[in-house]
Amino acid sequence: MPENRDVIIIGGGPAGLTAAIYAARANLHPLVIEGTAPGGQLMITSDVENYPGFRDPLTGPELIAAMRAQAERVGAQIVTNDVTAVDLSKQPFLVSTGQENLLAKSIIIATGAAAKWLGLASEQRLMGRGVSACATCDGFFFRDRDVAVIGGGDTAVEETLYLAKIARSVLLIHRRAELRASKIMQERAAGHAKVNFAWNSVVTEILGEDSVTGIRLQDTRTGATREIPIAGVFIAIGHQPNTALFSRWLECDDSGYLKTVPGTTRTSLPGIFAAGDVQDRVYRQAVTAASSGCMAALETERFLLATPAVV
Questions:
Q1: Angle, to 10 degrees, between the axis of helix 14-25 and the axis of helix 60-73?
Q2: How far apart are the C-alpha atoms of 170 and 162, rounded to whole Å?
Q3: What is this structure's pTM?
């Protein structure tokens, strides 16, 4: 019979690592299963300037490495492995990695959400060098430059309007002749002097060697192509929360994000908590993920103290 852990944290991004720091300092002996591709969206972020406590910019991987080292220093155990299955039908909960089965009195889910991409080789090659999925993270680097946003929903228009405060111009590219965004958002974009539109268009190539220099657009009706000089490309076609392992057991919203009790990280099952982008479809920032990781650890500690049956 495997050891019954106080808490297992699934995910090694800012939410999971912050939860590990707080849980370790509370003497909960957390086990972090960080995944074989740990770090989340920060691992494709070139420069981070908006995380408190760092005067000078640092890369996303550097920030994750610092958090990881801090978590280990205070006593968290971190393993690089993928969780392949869970059984949340009873306590203690079962977590399987494919190599071993683990038991936990509580679980913090911090598996994040993955941005949806276009699937272009040039998009992947220029990631963090002009290609981004987060305007609030990277928009600052494109002050007074021309940028493009790809998408047609509320998120795409929100990113467009945010960038319009920073960039010289914003080209909103949509594959159809009208946006899917709400009417008020459409009106705001249409009325903004810095926002232009490329209707019935798809990006077939992002141009540039060391950084983005432009895009190649194809008309979805005629097939005609054109190239436009652009310094930055922001992909805003949605995110996919990493909840496939948990959706059988836990309540999710219509987009697949784990539902939590408002103002908490408590999911629909006692003893299961969710932190970071896996339950946050609005902010998706490293600092908000870290703060919810802190909340999850504190709530886990209280749950364990108040639930003698699983202690």
A1: 20
A2: 10
A3: 0.81
